[in-house]
Design a protein that fits this description.
Blueprint: E1 13-16, H1 32-37, H2 39-44, E2 49-52, E3 56-57, E4 69-73, H3 80-92, E5 96-101, H4 111-118, E6 130-131, E7 152-155, E8 160-163, H5 178-194, E9 198-201, H6 235-249, E10 255-260, H7 265-271, E11 281-284, H8 286-289, E12 292-293, E13 296-300, H9 305-319, E14 324-327, H10 337-341, H11 348-359, E15 365-369, H12 390-402, H13 407-417, H14 454-459, H15 464-475, H16 479-483, E16 485-488, E17 499-503, E18 506-512, E19 519-522, E20 533-537, E21 548-551, E22 556-562
Helix pairs in contact: 5-6, 11-15
The chain binds alpha-D-glucopyranose.
């Protein structure tokens, strides 16, 4: 590796959603001691670094993405002492630890905000963004919140509105106030001193808003409009992150991955240009949006593997030699990848492996979301009451309560697309509640936990879990994977996702059939199928046969040539 900061270029990250990972104390919610208890499992996957979603003091209106105290652990997750033990144990196993830094907004229960809403004279008033309503008393602008409805909330005591791009309980911080920089720099220092190795910067490319708050176009019949052009990747973001880099991230070798919603690739290239000293890795969103109508995730369009390839190609070919993106098939903001892109019937196991094989040999840094390595599918929620997510409940209110849409149809779409569908507790074994908790789980478990669980898959050499282990281990240390250019084999095909990675004398091929029938992938003439070494296969294959490689239903393989 070129320098100390670049260790992550050859790393595999594992994403923990702590509330659903493992409950060590029987209260029905995962916790930090639960993470510590399962570190050997994570290490066994071939993981180098862990990123955990938030566990700070929070009313959990958005499951911890609403922080009320940045320097302490929410009691449901444990204590600061538990955090230190966890971090120490992670380091003892040679892994790094990344925390989620949620500083585009705080919780409305944060002491700063409580003071800010109490009076216009509060010293914290400028920590947030308040505006008078329009002359008719309506919101200062028609901006829509990411979770639906207005992005403004009226505050009775001061008779004005505050901005919340996300939930009502997530007021946006005012980064145009230099005090926010000082506060966040101190928070970074606090955790760096305790041993954290890096940060995932939540929604950070939204930090700088056009504070003239112009009205935006709305969709026909809608009151609020999508205003992202006025708060995504504006110049302030470069300034803020560079300042944090100078103060904390650079001197302390802290690595960052930035969540990038609706960011053009040209801007992303600037963000990860080492000379600019801004971010390290990019976690881009196009990967999440290509199978939906416009901005509406609840309006899916049928999945086409060519769209997935073109989305990845757009980023990877533009970033090649310039920067690295996170490679992921799912995360806590999505339904389960297997339900979305794979086959949940007869080819469940095969297709879960194919998804991993197709994604994790691309150029970038794998971020494996907990449970994807088991081949978990969407949770079968039975009623609206079983859901937890603020996005789900807002959607229900808007579509069923306000617009009178058919509740059954709405439930169906929520089962398919909601974030909760991918947030169920991890099944560790086939005992009640999958061994996740001895109490009552905070969210329904997936219905397959009797067979799809860590213990069962650990023992089965053909399981999804053991395939992930092989894949992630053999990914390490191969120059073609880290640096190789990507050559797609039939980018337009809607049947397979196949590509070569080439670097100096090594060529690697990842071939992946995304259908239930046989598909032939043609290798270029300069590669001799007979000389290929098959590194990985979900069908027990040891040779490629001929250059026209015939793949069975949902078959995948990875092969390598060295000259
Ligand atoms: C990010 C998080 C998401 C959260 C939102 C607001 O997109 O990944 O879970 O709801 O930010 O913090």
């Amino acid at each position: 590796m070129e320098n100390k900061r670049n260790w992550w270029q050859d790393a595999v990250f594992y994403q923990i959603y702590p509330r659903s990972f493992f409950d060590s104390d029987g209260d029905g919610e995962g916790d930090l001691a639960g993470i510590t208890a399962k570190l050997d499992y994570i290490k066994s996957l071939g993981v180098d670094a862990i990123w955990s979603c938030p566990y700070f003091v929070s009313p959990k209106a958005d499951n911890g993405y609403d922080v009320a105290d940045y320097r302490d652990i929410d009691p449901s997750f444990g204590t600061l002492e538990d955090w230190k033990v966890m971090c120490d144990e992670i380091h003892k196993r040679g892994m790094k630890f990344f925390m989620d830094l949620v500083v585009n907004h705080t919780s409305d229960e944060h002491a700063w905000f409580q003071s800010a809403i109490s009076s216009k004279d509060s010293p914290y008033r400028d920590y947030y963004i308040f505006r008078e309503g329009k002359e008719d008393g309506s919101e200062p602008s028609n901006w829509m919140s990411v979770f639906g409805g207005s992005a403004w909330q009226y505050n009775e005591p001061t008779k004005d509105y505050y901005l919340h791009l996300f939930a009502v309980k997530q007021p946006d911080l005012n980064w145009q106030n230099p005090k926010i920089m000082d506060e966040v720099s101190d928070i970074i220092e606090f955790w760096a001193d305790l041993g954290v190795d890096g940060f995932r910067l939540d929604a950070f490319n939204n930090a700088d808003k056009d504070q003239s708050f112009p009205d935006v176009e709305t969709f026909p019949g809608e009151k609020y409009g999508f205003a992202s052009q006025h708060y995504v990747s504006r110049p302030g973001v470069d300034e803020y992150i560079h300042e944090l880099y100078k103060r904390q991230l650079g001197p302390k070798d802290l690595v960052t991955v930035v969540e990038l919603a609706y960011c053009p690739v040209e801007k992303a290239i600037e963000y990860c240009d080492p000379k600019r000293e801004e971010f390290d890795m990019l976690y881009f969103f196009d990967m999440l949006n290509f199978d939906q109508e416009g901005y509406d995730k609840f309006k899916p369009v049928p999945f086409k593997v060519s769209d997935l390839k073109k989305t990845m190609d757009h980023w990877i070919s533009n970033l090649h030699g310039k920067g690295y993106c996170a490679l992921f098939i799912g995360n806590h903001d999505q339904c389960r990848a297997l339900s979305r892109f794979g086959n949940t019937g007869a080819y469940r196991v095969r297709s879960a492996k194919t998804l991993a094989n197709a994604m994790y040999f691309l150029e970038g840094v794998p971020y494996v979301y907990q449970g994807d390595e088991l081949g978990m599918t969407n949770t079968d929620f039975q009623s609206i009451e079983e859901y937890n997510d603020v996005e789900v409940h807002n959607y229900w209110r808007e579509h069923v309560v306000d617009k009178g849409e058919d509740p059954e149809k709405v439930l169906e779409i929520l089962r398919e697309r909601s974030r909760d569908a991918g947030r169920s507790p991890i099944p560790w074994n086939d005992s009640p509640n999958g061994g996740f908790t001895t109490g009552t789980p905070w969210l329904r478990l997936g219905s397959e936990y009797k067979t799809v669980n860590v213990e069962a898959e650990d023992k089965d050499p053909e399981s999804v879990l053991n395939f992930y282990r092989k894949l992630l281990h053999l990914r390490h240390g191969r120059p073609s994977i880290i640096k190789g250019e990507t050559c797609w084999l039939d980018l337009d095909s809607d049947e397979h996702m196949s590509y070569l990675r080439k670097f100096e004398g090594e060529t690697l091929a990842s071939l992946n059939n995304f259908t239930e029938h046989e598909v032939t992938v043609q290798l270029p003439e300069e590669l001799d199928a007979e000389n290929a070494e098959v590194l990985l296969s979900n069908c027990g294959r040891e040779t490629l046969g001929e250059n026209a490689v015939r793949l069975g239903p949902w078959e995948c393989l990875t092969a390598v040539w060295n000259s």
